[in-house]
Design goal:
- The protein has about 190 residues and is mostly helical.
- It has a single domain, classed as Hypothetical protein, domain 2 (Endonuclease III, domain 1, Orthogonal Bundle).
- It is built from 11 helices and no strands.
């Protein structure tokens, strides 16, 4: 498996690669901010908390956690709402998977459709974000259950540059940015 390069920062990318919950947190944070900033969020949390752990975050005092997310540089552009959502997601991982984020894709040997269903059930994950996460797992994390490409939809196709699942270096990051910019312009032209 190639080294992740989602943030383009070796320490932040290493955390994402070695900690499935950190990867999930980065994906959850990936909205209304640049993707590499979102995926750098787990490293900011790790630096402030000494790690990124579902149990620790779920049990953290909510007001103190929001303050921690708000410290500059903030974990997200909207540290209050995203901090709350992150704690809710962490609690779901604790309740449903004993705090083990990797169980989303390992418990009971699920197929791609089941992994997608489990991810979609998490706070902060709609249909599109869940599909992108399944594609990221399959393309870059070595998680390739039967049917994962189909579950990920267009994001699972090989050779695309549509999402964070396709970012493997600075060049592919630019291709994904261009794709998103064009898609946004096309959507705006329709309105």
């Amino acid at each position: 498996m190639a080294k992740l390069q989602l943030v383009q920062d070796p320490a932040a990318d290493e955390l994402l690669e070695s900690n499935p919950f950190a990867l999930l947190v980065g994906m959850m944070l990936d909205q209304q901010i640049p993707m590499e900033v979102a995926f750098a969020g787990p490293k900011k949390l790790a630096d402030r908390l000494g790690g990124v752990d579902a149990v620790q975050i779920a049990e953290y005092d909510p007001e103190k956690f929001i303050a921690l997310c708000s410290e500059r540089p903030a974990v997200h552009r909207f540290p209050g709402s995203m901090g709350k959502r992150l704690q809710t997601m962490a609690q779901a991982i604790v309740d449903d998977y004993d705090g083990n984020a990797a169980a989303l894709w390992t418990a009971g040997d699920p197929d791609g459709r089941e992994v997608l269903r489990r991810v979609k059930a998490l706070p902060g994950f709609g249909e599109q974000k869940a599909k992108i996460f399944v594609a990221l797992l399959g393309k870059q994390y070595g998680v390739t259950p039967t049917g994962w490409r189909e579950a990920a939809g267009d994001y699972g196709k090989a050779g695309t540059h549509m999402s964070v699942a396709d970012v493997v270096d600075a060049g592919s990051l630019e291709k994904v940015r261009s794709y998103k910019k064009a898609a946004k312009a096309a959507a705006k032209a329709k309105t």
